[in-house]
Design goal:
This protein has 187 residues and is of the alpha+beta class. It has a single domain (3-185), classed as 3-Layer(aba) Sandwich (Aminopeptidase). It is built from six helices and eight strands, in the order ββαααβββαβαββα. An eight-stranded mixed β-sheet has the order 1-2-3-4-5-6-8-7, with helices on both faces. Bound molecules: coenzyme A (COA). Coenzyme A (COA) binds at residues 32, 35, 81, 99-102, 107-113, 136, 140-143, 145-146, 149.
Length: 187
Amino acid sequence: MDTYLETERLALRRFTADDADLLIELDSDPAVMRYLTGGRPTAPELVRERHLPNILAGYEKWGGDLGLFAAHEKDGGAFIGWFILRPESNGPLDEVELGYRLRQAAWGRGYATEGSRALLGKAFTELGVRMVWAETMTVNHGSRNIMEKLDMTLANAIPIPSDMEMIEGAEHGGVRYEITREQWEQQ
Ligand SMILES: CC(C)(COP(=O)(O)OP(=O)(O)OC[C@H]1O[C@@H](n2cnc3c(N)ncnc32)[C@H](O)[C@@H]1OP(=O)(O)O)[C@@H](O)C(=O)NCCC(=O)NCCS
């Protein structure tokens, strides 16, 4: 496996062109997609023709250091979902977004926190990142809890994109959390 990062229980790797089925299956669970699309699965052809090619193009663009990474349990190798550590497409390389999408079977075991914590460490110590940010719906308590466990700071409220306005809780808007290298070093 082309390992990008290891934690105590997880191994993160770059996706390959053969991974469409993993992404399709992950996005087919309405519970996973609840605060992303209102539960609607991602169309398989969209994953094959747009999402996966974009993920692979990102590795080219950022030298394999930034992008979307598949996460597996080290014990047994099961795919548990993905993490993102990625700048905006035309944004500065030292400001990156943190994100996560895990299979329901993997929830509630601290995996999202464990993977994110390791990604913050890598970003700030190896990748020259100055600031990491994360955004989620105000009502996505699972996602916000991770940001808070990582000692990220609630920066501001954000509007919900128009294509997410029909999602349950959208009326409460979204939230953005941030952490700078200085804040991380002081932890
Ligand atoms: C959000 C998500 C990544 C959480 O993953 P996870 O591995 O279960 O998270 P962790 O186990 O690291 O939990 C972190 C903390 O949040 C809490 N938590 C997790 N899910 C929660 C929920 N639905 N509601 C309230 N708290 C929750 C945990 O109890 C834990 O706190 P604790 O250690 O004090 O008990 C996972 O549920 C998921 O992938 N959801 C679907 C995709 C998604 O919404 N991604 C975020 C989009 S911005």
